Amino acid sequence: MQKTEFSWFADDFLAMEAEIGRHIIGQKNVVRKVLCAMVAGGNVLLEGQPGLGKTQLVKTIGRVLQMEFSRIQFTPDLMPGDVTGTEVVVKNETGTSFRFQKGPIFANLVLADEINRATPKTQSALLEAMEEKTVTGGRETFSLPSPFFVLATQNPIEQEGTYPLPEAQLDRFMLKLNVEFPTKEELMEIVRLTTGVERPAPKALFDGEKILEMRRLAAEVPVAEPVLEQVMELVLKTHPESETAPEMVKKYVGCGASPRGAQAIIAICRVLALLDGRFNVSFEDVHAAAKEALHHRMFLNFEAFADGVTADAILDGLWKEERL
User: Are residues 306 and 194 part of one domain?
Assistant: First the structure.
C-alpha cells in the first residue's frame, strides 16, 4: 500500500491529539496511548492521584469525537444493576410486565471512576461489556453502542476501603497507564487555564465512525514473522515455568502475562506504525507498546515486594535481553 493511501490516518490522529492537548496540559503519553487503545478497540486503566485530569480527558475525547460520554462513580454501595441497568415493572392496560432499563454503561465512552472502591461483585459487572461489548439483562442480551470504550481509574495512594481488581478484570484492560504528577511548568499552565476566564469548549472534529474507520485500517497492517516471534517470546518469558524465562522472572513472578497481552501489543503496534507513516510493524513499536500492555498482567510474588522489584523493572530486563 502506498503511503498516500493511509497518510490520512496520521493526519486525523494528530488532529485529535492536538485538540485534546489544548485542554489537557501535559500527559502527552497518556493522551496518545488512550487514543491508540481506542483505535485498537481496547480499554484502559489509569492509575494516578486525584485531580490530574482523568475525567476531563474522557470528557474532552467525547466532545472532540462527538460521542456519548458516561461517568460511573464507583463506591462500596454501588450495585451491579447501577452499572448495567435493571428490570423495572411497567404497568399497562393488559396488566404489568418487566422492561429492562439501560444503565450508564450504554454509552460510547464510559469512565469507571475509582473502580477499586466498589466490591468485586460490582466490578465484575463490567466484564461482559469490556470483552463482548454486550450486556445481559434477565434473559435478553443487549449490544452496546459502537465504538465502545471503558477508561477506569484507581488511586494508588489511598487504599483504605478499596478492593483490588481481580486478575481476570485487569486482563480485560488493553493498557495500564500511570498518570504522572505535572511538572512545575505544566502545573502553572493548568492553573492559568482553569482559574481564568471561561475556556472554550473542545472542537468537534470527527465522530465515532472515524474511530471505526481507523480501526479497520489498523487491522490490515501486516506484522512480519520475526516481529511476531519476538512478541511471543517476550510474553512467554514472563512465565516462571517457561524454559526461556530468566532467573529474575523465576524468582519474582508468580504468574506471567496471558495471551491477551500478546494481542494487546500487536494491536497497539499497528496503530503506532501508521502514526509513524509505515504500513508495517517494527521492533521499536514493540518496545513502545510492551511495558504498558504487560506490566498489569504480571503478578509478582511476596519476594518481589520484599525486595522492591517492580513489573516494569522485570520487563526492562527482558527487553534488554531481547536486544542483546
Answer: no
Kindly report, residue by residue over 140-172, the tens digit of the pLDDT: 888 999 999 999 988 776 666 678 888 888 999
Q: How many domains is the chain partitioned into structurally?
A: 2
Residue burial 24-44, b: 16+ Cβ < 10 Å; e: rest: bbbbeebbbbbbbbbbbbbbb
Residue holding cell 491477551?
260
Q: Within its chain, how far is the Cα of 91 from the centroid?
A: 41
Distance from C-alpha of 50 to C-alpha of 175, rounded to nearest angstrom: 19
CB 296 within 8 A of CB 152: no
Domain identity same for 93 and 195: yes
Q: Where are the beta strands (DSSP E) in 146-190?
A: 149-154, 175-178
On whether both 132 and 225 belong to a single domain, the answer is no
Domain that holds residue 29: 3-212
Give the CA-trace dihedral at 54, 55, 57, 63, to 10 degrees: 170
Output the domain CATH number for residue 37.
3.40.50.300
Asked whether residue 45 falls in the same domain as residue 185, the answer is yes
User: What contacts 65, CB < 8 A, 6 or more positions away?
Assistant: 16, 108, 204, 205, 206, 207, 208, 210, 211
Helix (H) or strand (E) holding 5: helix 3-21
b or e along 279-291 (b: 16 or more beta carbons within 10 Å of the residue's beta carbon)? bbbbeebbbbbbb
Cβ neighbours of residue 77 under 8 Å, at least 6 residues apart?
Answer: none
Same domain, 97 and 199: yes
- Do 74 and 182 reside in the same domain of the chain? yes
Residue 267 binned pLDDT confidence (cut-offs 50, 70, 90): very high
pTM: 0.90
